[in-house]
Write a structure and sequence with these properties.
Immunoglobulin-like; 4-stranded antiparallel beta sheet; mainly beta; 3 domains; 25 strands
C-alpha cells in the first residue's frame, strides 16, 4: 500500500516520514511537514517496514510500504473419517467436494482458518472460521467423506506454574513496579492450607486457581489483568485475607524507522490509497 499526500510548494527537507511498529501486529506511518501538517496512516498487519520508502515529486508525497504474504499453515485434507471427535472438532457440509478439491489454511496471527473448494481449477466457495487464541495450528487435521469436512482443531496445553503462599506480613508490601492485583477473603484458612497455581495460555492472559482445605474445600478461579508477568506473581495469606501481588511485563518498545524522502518516484508496484 502507498498513502499519498498533496504537499504543494514543499521540498523533501520540509518533510519527515516515520514508520512506527508499536507491536507485532500494529504499525503505522507518521508524516510531519512544515509548517503545521501532521498525518497518521494505519498499516496492514503484514506491512514490511524495513522495505518502506518515501518520495516527494511534483508536490505529492508518496510512501510505499510493501505487504508481505501472511505466514499460513496448510492443513492437508485426507479422504475418510476422522477418529478425533469432541469439542475441538468442527463439521462443515461440503456436498460435491472431496478431499482432493478442498484447501484448508490456518493463519495463526490473524486467528482465522480459511476453507476453499475448487472445481475445474476455479474457487467455488470460501469459508472463514475464527480460531481460539490457544489453537495449536501445527496439530490441526482435516478429513473429508460423503460431502462432510471434519476439522480437528486442538488447543495448546496451557502451562501451569505453582505460586508459593507466604504467611509473612512483610511480604504484603509492594516494591517498585509491583501492585496488588487481588484480595480474596479466606477466613479459617492458613497459608499452609492454600494451594495456588497459574494457568498460562500463552496469549498474555493468565488465570489463577486457588484451592484450600479438605473438610470444607475452597475453590476459586480468577483471571489476572492482561500483561501481568507470570514469574512475578506471589501470594501472602494473613488474618484470613489472601493477597496476590504481581508486576506487569516489560512493555514492548516501539520501533521507529525514519524514511529518507527522495525526489524520485517511490516503488510503483504497490496499490495506492489517497488521503
Amino acid at each position: 500500500m502507498a498513502p499519498t499526500v498533496p504537499l504543494p510548494g514543499l521540498t523533501a527537507s520540509d518533510v519527515t516520514v516515520e514508520a512506527v511498529r508499536a507491536s507485532r501486529h500494529r504499525c503505522k506511518i507518521m508524516i510531519h511537514a512544515l509548517p503545521r501538517f501532521e498525518a497518521e496512516y494505519r498499516l496492514p498487519m503484514y506491512a514490511d517496514l524495513s522495505a518502506a520508502s518515501a518520495s516527494l515529486v511534483d508536490g505529492k508525497l508518496t510512501v510505499a510500504v510493501p505487504v508481505s504474504a501472511p505466514d499460513t499453515v496448510t492443513v492437508p485434507v485426507a479422504e475418510g473419517d476422522s477418529s478425533a471427535e469432541g469439542d475441538d472438532t468442527v463439521h462443515l457440509n461440503v456436498p460435491g467436494f472431496g478431499a482432493d478439491s478442498l484447501s484448508v489454511k490456518a493463519d495463526p496471527h490473524a486467528r482465522t482458518l480459511a476453507v476453499e473448494g475448487f472445481r475445474d481449477g476455479n474457487i467455488r466457495f470460501t469459508r472463514s472460521l475464527p480460531l481460539r487464541v490457544d489453537a495449536d495450528v501445527e496439530r490441526f487435521t482435516a478429513t473429508a467423506k460423503d460431502g462432510v469436512l471434519r476439522l480437528h482443531l486442538p488447543r495448546r496445553t496451557p502451562e501451569e506454574l505453582s505460586v508459593p503462599v507466604s504467611d509473612n506480613r512483610q511480604h504484603l508490601q509492594t516494591s517498585e513496579g509491583e501492585k496488588v492485583i487481588s484480595k480474596l477473603p479466606v477466613p479459617g484458612y492458613s497459608a499452609e492450607q492454600i494451594a495456588a497455581k497459574l494457568i498460562c495460555r500463552g496469549d498474555g492472559y493468565i488465570s489463577m486457581h486457588i484451592t484450600a482445605g479438605l473438610s470444607s474445600p475452597l475453590q476459586c478461579r480468577e483471571r489476572l489483568p492482561y500483561g501481568v508477568s507470570a514469574e512475578s506473581v506471589r501470594a501472602s495469606c494473613c488474618d484470613g485475607l489472601l493477597v496476590v501481588i504481581a508486576a506487569n511485563s516489560e512493555p514492548q518498545q516501539e520501533e521507529h524507522i525514519q524514511l529518507p524522502v527522495s525526489t524520485t518516484n517511490a516503488a510503483d508496484h504497490t496499490d495506492h490509497m489517497s488521503s
